Write a sequence for this structure.
């Protein structure tokens, strides 16, 4: 009789493990399908998902050397080098006191962080934000 109870418990445990494992297999299958769809879109010339686009964004920190509002470009100087960015139509500008700033709120000499992507060999700025100066971040005063 104890052999019968042991067999039933073993059978219940085995059935329970299949029930618990099924959602895990379903998630793995869904992830594999998502990866295949993304790869197929790239192969077929479609656009990659937004999450993959954000992964390609880079950062650049320096001071504003020049702004050309007509050409929609900004040049950032970093030590001995500088880089010119085309400003995306949907670019966001952020200043110390304004999260919805415009390009006009930025000026030459401002220390900024630029989030950009390379599009056809052109650096395109998607976000330009004032960067905290080291002295201000450390809490020192004049």
């Amino acid at each position: 009789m104890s052999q019968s109870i042991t067999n039933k418990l073993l059978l219940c445990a085995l059935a329970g493990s299949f029930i618990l494992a099924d959602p895990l297999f379903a998630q793995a299958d869904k992830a594999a399908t998502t990866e295949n769809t993304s790869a197929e879109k790239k192969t077929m010339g479609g656009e990659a998902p937004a999450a993959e686009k954000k992964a390609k964004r880079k950062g650049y920190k320096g001071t504003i050397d020049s702004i050309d509002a007509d050409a929609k470009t900004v040049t950032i100087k970093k030590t001995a080098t500088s880089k010119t960015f085309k400003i995306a139509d949907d670019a966001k500008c952020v200043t110390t006191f304004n999260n919805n700033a415009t390009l006009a709120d930025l000026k030459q000499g401002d220390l900024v962080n630029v989030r950009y992507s390379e599009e056809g060999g052109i650096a395109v700025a998607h976000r330009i934000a004032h960067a905290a100066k080291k002295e201000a971040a450390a809490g020192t005063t004049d």
In short: Residues 2-43 form the longest helix (42 residues). The chain has three helices and five strands. The radius of gyration is 27 Å.
